[in-house]
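Tutorial, part two.
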Amino acid sequence: MNYFAIQVKTRSEEKYIKLFRALHPEVRIPIHFPQRKMDIRKGGRIIPAASGIFPGYIFLEVEDDEDIFKHQWEFRRTDGFFRFLKSNQNITPLTDRDLEIVLHFIKKVGPVAGTSRVYFNENSRIVVVEGPLMGLEGNIIKVDKRKGRAKIKLDLYNDSFSIDLAFEVIGAAARPGSIL
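Running the prediction step on this input gives:
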């Protein structure tokens, strides 16, 4: 299985996927758009919100690379398309760390990343017990305990960006290996 990335209009990823499926129902390539779910405080109210983990990017899953080259023009002609990554002239599958990060969200986490469960050890360092942050502890660059968010740094094709993922703090009794 290979995965390819397409850059599309930011905040229009779902619209692009729906339009592509409507215009080209014969193309059966799985399209992934990993998202995250967080509660946002606005005007004193808590509002649930969903947004893309990789804003402006969708991912194609193919068994045979020829499928990408066979259908590239269908993707290019759909409104909202910007480019294949690395470039339209050099369409290459994700590899190494890029592939690892994308597969973490597509396969392990699922289509929508929810809230991670964490606790803080005696050195006030975050310890992830379960959830989307599991395995990304080394990418955490900032923790906001009050808001329940961890800012993580992600890299994709030599481009770095940071996103927030939600967490909830669990009590000491729920820690693995703790004695009651």
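Residues 96-109 form the longest helix (14 residues). In part three we will examine how such features are distributed along the chain.
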